[in-house]
Design brief:
This protein has 974 residues and is of the alpha/beta class. It is built from 29 helices and 29 strands. Strands 2-1-3-7-8-10 form a 6-stranded mixed sheet, sandwiched between helices. It has a 6-stranded mixed sheet with strand order 12-16-15-17-23-18, sandwiched between helices. A 6-stranded mixed sheet has the order 26-25-24-27-28-29, sandwiched between helices.
């Protein structure tokens, strides 16, 4: 399609900002707090849209803190009235399910009630309104400035609607998936909305592609942070953009600015050239269909130790050129100064080198330290190429002469030292020695841009590899003969299993992303170096590549690891004496710890995302253990944390949980610590299982087909980093981070002293086996894949008084159904009768849409008969046992009763059912609507314990607890 210009049509912008909420903390059902910054969001964005000229009088509506009903009404009206461009903006609180598959926008009256979110509007519901047949809008842009905004992209992909309707909907999101953003300052708009308005206010024709690139660059330069100190990275979802396929959002008057490269139009980016080793440098590593994880970067200036003039701002896109004070220059220009108080448009992501900054979310304060400048380069792009010039031209020949002089002074400072330089400058200041100074300096130019090496690693290794990269970049090994830094390093982490798949099976899509297959979005830029948690991960990727017809990346794996760290059970210090410190199997350690005190919990990160968790899972599953039962031994209140770092950060959020919880993590994190918010943490001691392989980080060089533009330089830089990392200086940094020697007795590299809670030497466990890891990962996926749940609803006559309403039997079951997703299989048996037929099928077993299941429960009736749990429970156990015989998918039986027929579960009948429950391997939730049903030695308690399930009665918070049990088995809202 050509660029859509909405001028001359009926356009609408609905700006929804929820700054005030009726229910806030400490109300347990309230949202976390008010959002005063959102009041400014509505105004600054409305002003920017009016100024841009796309929306006429009355076409921009601000909706201040509406209820869900008011929001739905306003959106419906906007959909009916729009014929051109419909822009929907939302800022406020939002929540997601622990599976990350839903997103709910919380309006003024929002509350959080177990299993329900009154006062919120699901994003799927928003999409449904935008895709109605009556919608006449030609294009729809949804802008979300809220927690978990990036989750909207997956919901868009899964949303069932005609493709023609979905393609009209474009998304611009303030943060990547599964991240929560900060609330901003009370006296100005939130960072994302503030930057969107700033780009629109710059004037000229602003297309959506330019808006996205510019906002992304501005936020990267300002180093805005989400919660847990993650980078806040805006995301986008749309058809591929180019100058002729875009949506025009503004065409306001261009603000006067200087320094724009000749021939550069409003939506053009100077100097964009294809990068055959990565993606083209206009879009960098990011597909406009989304954005991959933005790596933290350590990028080098051309020369270490350069002095800068006071009160100057180094310009993105230049090689350290200074500008006049209080000016902002255009990235991509040749460092030309602009008039004070002007704003210009950011240029190409990946072309900008910005000085190191000290920032507060929402406030950017560039700081240039004399003698040390640390620019940041956008991830995934090749290092900028210096502007072409005649061979005899100086790189600053187009700048002010005094800038040229400053650049030469920097060189002299390094060569002569500050004392000699001070004397020379004194001579220059008195007018006697200027010629001598220039003769001494000669024609020496500042250093050119250095090559940027992209290093992809496991999420657990990322903090340590980042520190190693920082140390390497400033080391003497990274300086050439002129004192210029040879290279910089970008370190970024991504889910371990996804990386193995991408390097083994998706290298073509990594070079040429598609809307439905885009590793650049899902993982990050094409790496030059990969450092997996184990050598086995690299072998798995190579084995997968060998099965492909053609691969576009070749992996060159070192013969052995460069460090070692065992996977440990980190137990609270005061409980450590209850568990043997070394030797037993992990399953034995877990059992011993959980019996050490009531309520003890064992937590593990997601094995699909981090190598240490996958290694731990090999120990949990053993050789023959049932994966489902092994997973039941772990505490799973929701989606597991994405890394061991995140897990150790999350535990102190609840002191009681922290004090009674053990965590399966790499040992080195207990020494290096984790960079989360300060908190009082339970001291932990490492317990070393004897059957879990350790982390063995290994250096893997990744060579891309057609990535030969700077092949020799990139090879040399990769080899320099590898040599440094495996040498004395690299080992010292790794030792500080808590790693051990990769061979021999696996001693701590830095054992002076041995940290409290760790052991000086450990017996190494045999290295991870690639086939074993592949099998365990598959079994884990089955154990957490679509589940099977069989509900047994006591429909006997005694249930008549506990049947109607949300607290009655059918109502309780209905309120748990949101824990099941569209791929889960479930059914409902109505139990009645004591003869050969003990139940009727209320809802056939299989997959269902939620309304279908709700209708079936609404039609359920009490029968004039007794129920026979002695016959029905074994039938149900056998029913699910047969269905799970060929896989390890999670299964659950829910038996809901008033307890009146428990007399049939006594004596030999009870013993028989308990024995069948033990043998089946199917967990059973025994739910009694009366109190006392889960007292000691009651039938419900004994059957649930035998089956590895849970007993619940009226003394419990019954509905939320049962919902959690169902959600653990299913794939809905956990």
């Amino acid at each position: 399609m050509g660029r859509f210009d909405p001028r001359g049509t009926a356009n609408r912008a609905l700006l929804v900002g929820v700054s005030e909420y009726d229910h806030t903390a400490p109300d347990p059902q309230g949202v976390t707090g008010q959002l005063p910054a959102v009041r400014y969001n509505r105004k600054v964005l409305a002003d920017a849209l009016h100024r841009g000229g796309m929306f006429g009088a009355g076409e921009v509506r601000q909706l201040a803190s509406p209820s869900a009903e008011e929001f739905n009404g306003a959106l419906s009206l906007a959909v009916r009235e729009t014929e051109g461009l419909l822009l929907l903006y939302f800022a406020g609180h939002a929540v997601t399910s622990t599976s990350g598959r839903t997103l709910h926008l919380q309006m003024r009256t929002a509350r959080v009630v177990a299993g329900e979110l009154p006062g919120a509007v699901s994003f799927a519901q928003v999409l449904g309104e935008l895709c109605v047949a009556e919608c006449r809008a030609e294009m729809i842009l949804v802008i979300l400035d809220c927690c978990y905004a990036g989750n909207a992209a997956e919901i868009w992909h899964r949303f069932d609607a005609p493709l023609s309707a979905k393609r009209k909907i474009l998304l611009l999101m303030s943060v990547q998936p599964n991240r929560c953003i900060l609330g901003g300052d009370a006296d100005e708009a939130t960072p994302f909305t503030r930057e969107v308005a700033a780009v629109l206010n710059a004037g000229g024709e602003v297309g959506l592609s330019r808006l996205y690139r510019a906002v992304k660059q501005r936020m990267a330069d300002a180093r805005y942070k989400a919660e847990d100190d993650d980078d806040q990275l805006p995301q986008a979802l749309a058809p591929p953009w180019d100058p002729d396929a875009d949506v025009l959002l503004g065409a306001g008057p261009v603000r006067q600015r200087s320094g724009t490269a000749p021939g550069t139009g409003p939506d053009e980016t100077p100097g964009a050239t294809p990068d055959r080793n990565g993606s083209d440098s206009v879009n960098g590593s990011d597909s406009v269909n989304g954005s991959g994880p933005a790596p933290s970067t350590t990028t080098t200036p051309g020369r270490s130790g350069k002095a800068t003039a006071p009160d100057t701002t180094t310009t993105p896109g230049t090689s350290g050129k200074a500008t006049a004070p209080d000016t902002t220059t255009t990235p991509g220009t040749s460092g030309k100064a602009t008039a004070p108080d002007t704003t210009t448009t950011p240029g190409t992501p990946g072309k900008a080198n910005t000085p190191a900054k000290t920032t507060t979310p929402g406030k950017t304060t560039p700081t240039i330290t004399p003698g040390k400048t640390t620019p940041t380069t956008a991830p995934g792009t090749a290092t900028p190429t210096a502007p072409s010039r005649p061979p005899d031209a100086h790189p600053h020949s187009h700048s002010h002469p005094w800038l040229h002089l400053l650049a030469r002074v920097r060189v002299v400072m390094e060569r002569l030292g500050s004392l000699v330089l001070s004397a020379l400058l004194a001579l220059l200041a008195t007018g006697a020695g200027g010629y001598g100074l220039f003769a001494l300096i000669g024609d020496t130019a500042p250093c050119g841009p250095s090559l940027e090496l992209r290093v992809l690693t496991d999420p657990d290794l990322e903090p340590a590899m980042r520190r190693a990269a920082d140390a390497y970049v400033v080391s003497q090994d990274n300086l050439d003969g002129d004192g210029c830094r040879r290279g910089g390093i970008t370190v970024y982490g991504s889910g371990a299993a996804g990386v193995v798949t991408a390097l083994g099976e998706r290298t073509d899509a990594w070079q040429q992303p598609r809307e439905d297959d885009n590793p650049q979005r899902d993982i990050g830029p094409q790496p030059d170096v990969w450092i997996p948690a184990t050598r086995a991960a690299a072998e798995r990727a190579r084995a997968a590549a060998a099965r492909q017809n053609r691969v576009f990346a070749r992996l060159e794996t070192d013969a052995g690891p460069f460090a070692y760290s065992p996977v440990v059970l980190a137990v609270p210090e005061r409980l450590a004496t209850r568990v043997k410190p070394t030797g037993p199997s992990l399953s034995e350690l877990v059992a011993a710890f959980e019996s050490a005190r009531p309520g003890a919990e064992v937590h593990r990160p997601d094995p699909a995302l981090t190598g240490s968790a996958l290694l731990a899972t090999t120990g949990l599953y053993g050789d023959d253990a049932d994966a489902g039962r092994a997973e039941q031994a772990l505490t799973r209140a929701g989606r597991p944390e994405p890394s061991a770092v995140a897990l150790l950060c999350a535990l102190p959020a609840d002191d009681a949980v922290d004090d009674r919880s053990a965590a399966l993590v790499p040992e080195f994190l207990l020494r290096s610590g984790v960079g989360c918010h300060p908190a009082d943490r339970a001291p932990r001691t490492a317990v070393y299982p004897g059957d879990v392989p350790g982390l063995e980080p290994t250096f893997v060089r990744v060579r891309w087909e057609d990535g030969d533009r700077d092949l020799q330089a990139r090879d040399a830089e990769a080899e320099r980093f590898r040599t440094w990392l495996t040498g004395e200086e690299g080992r010292a940094v790794l030792g500080e981070q808590g790693f051990r020697s990769p061979s021999g007795a696996r001693d701590l590299i830095d054992a002076d002293p041995v940290p409290e809670g760790l052991t000086a030497s450990v017996l190494p466990v045999e290295s991870a086996d690639p086939a074993r890891l592949e099998s365990v990962l598959k079994r884990y996926g089955n154990a957490h894949g679509p589940g099977r749940v069989l509900f047994l609803l006591d429909s006997s006559g005694s249930m008549a008084g506990r049947w109607d309403g949300p607290g009655g039997g059918p109502g309780v079951l209905e309120r748990t159904l949101t824990g099941l997703g569209g791929e889960d299989e479930y059914g409902v048996w109505a139990l009645h009768g004591t003869g050969r037929r003990t139940h009727t099928e209320l809802l056939p077993f299989g997959t269902h849409r939620l309304p279908e299941a709700q209708r079936a429960l609404a039609e359920a009736e009490v029968r004039d008969a007794e129920a026979d749990p002695h016959a029905a429970l074994p039938d149900a156990l056998e029913f699910l046992r047969k269905r799970g015989s060929d896989d390890e998918r999670p299964q659950l039986i829910v038996y809901l009763t008033d307890g009146e027929d428990d007399t049939r579960l006594a004596g030999g009948n009870l013993d028989e059912v308990v024995e069948r429950a033990k043998e089946s391997g199917v967990p059973v939730a025994m739910v009694t609507l009366n109190s006392g049903g889960c007292d000691r030695n009651r039938p419900g308690t004994l059957v649930a314990e035998a089956a590895g399930g849970r007993c619940l009665d009226a003394a419990d918070d019954l509905v939320p607890a049962l919902h959690d049990e169902v959600a653990r088995t299913g794939t809905g809202e956990e």
